[in-house]
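Ex. 9. Protein: 2-hydroxyacyl-CoA lyase.
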Amino acid sequence: MFGIVGVPVIEVAMAAQAAGIKYVGMRNEQAVNACYAASAVGYMTGRPGACLVVSGPGLIHALGGMANANMNCWPVIVIGGSSDRNQETAAAAVERSREKGRRVVCVEGDSAFGFSGMEVETMCRYKLPVVIIVVNNNGIYSGVDAETWKEMAKLGDLTSVAPPVSLLPEARYDEVMTAFGGRGFLVRTVEELRSALQTSLSDWENPSLLNVLIDPSSDRKQQEFPWLTRSNL
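Predicted structure tokens for 2-hydroxyacyl-CoA lyase:
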């Protein structure tokens, strides 16, 4: 069961744990976090994943994940609303236990990391050995290098001169992970990437984040077959 508890549903989470159901407290109910995690369990196991949220805004935040699960036919149960303080039982699905020898590796861009970056605290809290690889090009689609950023700052207010798709150059996302006790690696070369990945995969006790800096002007590799990148819309 994934979710964020509040006064209305704290007892539900406690009752679930008492019944032997694992509860993973997330930092955000939205599609990219708690509800999406529950949907992923449904996709991987074929059994419903469970998401627990508070009433009102909590349930609204879960709508994105519910819509995504519905579109993909992934089984998920969202529990929201209020509960009596003396409630002792709760119905929920149990996620499949992690199998020894298997790891979760998440590859995402620096823009995507901005949506769910605080979940590294969740990983460190539960000692989930997830390996995150952030492909950092300093922007949404593309950014600018550090020197160009400094020159733009001389031109005036960055809110007026910086490209809307740009993010802070060479942001230290790896230090976000280390701040919570996980492993963080700043990667600039292929050899550094290989070494950091080997170290991360050998550690079964802590999550890791590889902050891979690439050329901000790098473009998508030309695909041999157009259907690999063609939109279905």
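Check your answer against this statement. The longest strand covers residues 131-136.
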